[in-house]
Amino acid sequence: MMWVLTGAAVMGVMLPGYLRLERVEPALAIAICLSTLLIRALSAILAVLVVFFYLPGTTVYEMITQWCWHTVMPALPGHVSFSGHQLGDFAIPLPLIAVAVSVISMIAGLASVAYRLQRWLARESLGEGPCGSTIIPGAGLTLAAAGFPRSRIVVSTGALAALDGAELAAGVEHERGHIVRRHRVVFLLSAICSALARFFPGTRQAADRLAFHIERDADAYALSRRHDRLALAGAICKAALAPGENATAMSLHGGGTVAARVALLLEGPPAAPARRCVARGTAVALVGLVLALSVSVSIAAADGARQLNSAPGSPHCQS
Length: 319
Description:
The chain is mostly helical. It has helices at about 1-15, 25-55, 60-65, 70, 85-90, 95-125, 155-160, 165-180, 185-195, 205-225, 230-240, 260-265, 275-310; strands at about 125-130, 135, 145, 150-155, 250. It contains 13 helices and 5 strands. A hairpin with a 5-residue loop joins β1 (about 125-130) and β2 (about 135).
């Protein structure tokens, strides 16, 4: 069963990379990308549990750790009571500690950024802006959904000067889409999964793909509110080219995804029925795999804890 889940997890992580998810609905692409990150995170947890609970009971572990220092180096003077089992007892918790430190540092970093951002907004806010936004000072073009868990749309004075009426309205609606569609929660889940699976190759790229489709979803929300495609594309391009943006906010241009997003905006809705069917099937399979891995992690944790409580202590070197 474990090998089946492992193979399925590998396929679940690799398969979405071969699908052109930019040609399906953003919400569906988000579900697929988030599922791959969840699979990575659950696989990392499962691997840590296997090492922590089950590895010490294997024959291979016994063969590797069944030695004592004074038998390996008999020529050294004196007696040193140190064995391979003691070294194994020290090494076994290291993956668990590494994952815990990664997650804790990520949560502490996000909490620090959110706290500083809220204080900065409370101190620098100039009042209410257009379309229910908050105006902040700054010559740079800042148009963003800022704050967590209570987000607000912030618009810099530089953005008011740089964007025309249609571009400003479309950009504000894009940021409102982040708030309405709970993208902050998705980003938080992505950050936690990335911290858990930080040591797996490709995790950063998977998180970047998810961020790209989140921006696409906010674009789609703005278009659903009957804003012009060209106006939104213009606002995105201006935000990407403008200097001095506040890096702590979820910005309009969405990092390095500008060219692809603008191209998709200008091409129109990606309606390919066959591709959509494949993507939906992939999403269902990945969600099923996430549920299976979640159950496996729960079973492994409970069974491992029972084995740990009933296991005898590690043997020590005898004089």
